[in-house]
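Duplicate of earlier report; Chromosome partition protein Smc input re-posted below.
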Amino acid sequence: QQSKSTKEYWKIMKSQGIGKVKRKIDYLAVSLDELNTFFCQDEAERNDSQDTIHTYKTRRKTYQPFKFRTITEEDIQKALNQITALTVGIDGIPIDVVKNLKEEIMTVLVHIFNESIANCVYPDVWKNAIVQPLPKVDKP
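Output:
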């Protein structure tokens, strides 16, 4: 039977993707020398190695959950200013029309984008595009 410290150590290791866990590990917070030393000790010495486990626990990275921020009128204005293409999208509305009407439709655009983010919905129509391949023409 494994000692309590060995079980705890492997529990920590598995939570980080080491062992029989099908998860990618981004980093190893314990050096290979520390692992080797821990497992080469006899059980009595291992019980005294709780500081190794504690050190491992305190060195783990913590990640903040990803969240979208709300869209502002300035964000939309900046995005519209960056569009230089004159092509028409799948909705048939030229970008010049959108740019010329931005004062009138800005509040609606902000609302649509923020509702999409808040409700985690990406409308299917936004997933479509018109793609026209342009054949490469040899220069005469």
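The chain has two domains: 4-59, 73-127.

Merging into the original ticket.
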